[in-house]
Design brief:
By secondary structure, this protein is an alpha/beta fold. Helices cover 35% and strands 14% of the residues. The protein is built from 15 helices and 12 strands. Strands 7-6-5-8-9-10 form a 6-stranded parallel sheet, sandwiched between helices. α5 crosses α10.
């Protein structure tokens, strides 16, 4: 790939470069063996690799480390480069549940438990699997719940499956093309359970946002979220893209509202640590230790509930600090360019 001279010069003078997604493989090749610390962050589905695999380098240079947003994204890369060492780096998100935001009564629940899926309508997102599972529910169970599909139609087959379902069950199956950010937050606050039926999804953001609000989820094994879910504690995982398996889990969730509601109280602390992007001021007192303003290390400056290594972006800072020494004689404030201090 040919860089603009100014951009190439900026990259070579940088303290640290994040190369984003597999699509940037040629950028990575250009930056390999340059002495600039590079983190290659993968959050791609299997579906994109056939079109880009020829641009992926055969080996990883010493100045490069590879991270993925979860095990599913790592598996996608390992399908074409099984020898790559890939570490885990999930995205960090603010704790939306503690923010002040306008609350909207979206009107979909109508006094029933609300099961929600959000995402563009395409085959790999599996809306048709969710539709089939809803149809498989016994009528007396199905009528006890409401179901909402949110997303822009990118695939006619998926859209037709949802439209036909809403036509057959207009009183409790709904479709919405898009919601604003505040409406999404209200939806996460009001819904009962998130459902992700994707066939190929590295880390569906709407499920992560639901977990932030303490909402349980039912997800396909072919999602990165499946690696975060503790079965029966904060959600469920079904296998083989099987609508019948999904139907059984939906049936249990609808028929056991008290048990499902109790799950939101049991979101494990380690999972919360992964989900929330938290940072503290360099002079903040944590764990009996005080970071020094002038000489505090990156590790001291970035902590999360007393467990720095649980912070999503801690790994970026550690990698940067480890590799900065041969580029600059002093840290260049890397944590302040990556994280927002509270």
């Amino acid at each position: 790939m040919c860089f603009l001279p100014a951009l190439w010069g900026l990259a070579l003078c940088a303290d640290f470069v994040i190369v984003n997604t597999v699509v940037s493989g040629r950028v990575l090749r250009a930056l390999s063996d340059t002495g600039v610390p590079v983190l290659w962050w993968l959050h791609d589905a299997f579906a994109g690799y056939p079109h880009i695999a020829h641009q992926i380098p055969k080996t990883i240079a010493p100045n490069v480390e590879v991270y993925s947003v979860g095990k599913h994204a790592a598996a996608a890369m390992h399908a074409v480069r099984p020898e790559f060492e890939i570490k885990q780096l999930i995205y960090g998100l603010p704790d939306y549940s503690k923010e002040d935001f306008p609350v909207y009564d979206l009107g979909y629940a109508n006094g029933r438990p609300l099961f929600v899926t959000v995402g563009s309508f395409e085959r790999r997102k599996g809306q048709d699997i969710f539709c089939k599972a809803i149809r498989l529910l016994p009528p007396e169970v199905r009528q006890k719940a409401s179901f909402l599909f949110v997303g822009k139609a990118a695939d006619r087959e998926m859209m037709d499956a949802v439209r036909n379902l809403t036509a057959d069950y207009p009183s409790n199956v709904f479709y919405c093309k898009r919601l604003s950010r505040d409406e999404i937050k209200s939806l996460m606050q009001q819904c009962t359970c998130l459902v992700c039926a994707s066939r190929d999804d590295p880390m569906p953001t709407f499920v992560t946002e639901g977990l932030i609000f303490g909402k349980p989820s039912i997800v396909s094994e072919h999602t990165g979220t499946a690696g975060l879910v503790t079965e029966g504690v904060d959600g469920f995982v079904y296998r083989d893209d099987d609508p019948a398996q999904l139907e059984k889990l939906l049936c249990w969730a609808i028929e056991h509202p008290a048990e499902l509601a109790a799950m939101r109280q049991r979101l494990p602390r380690p999972l919360r640590a992964l989900l929330f992007q938290r940072s503290v001021r360099p002079d903040a007192d944590h764990g009996g230790k005080r970071a020094d303003r002038k000489s505090g290390t990156v590790e001291q400056q970035i902590t999360l509930e007393g467990q720095a290594d649980a912070c999503p972006f801690y790994h970026i800072a550690v990698f940067a600090k480890k590799n900065l020494s041969h580029v600059h004689k002093k840290p260049a404030g890397i944590c302040y360019t990556v994280l927002k201090s509270r």
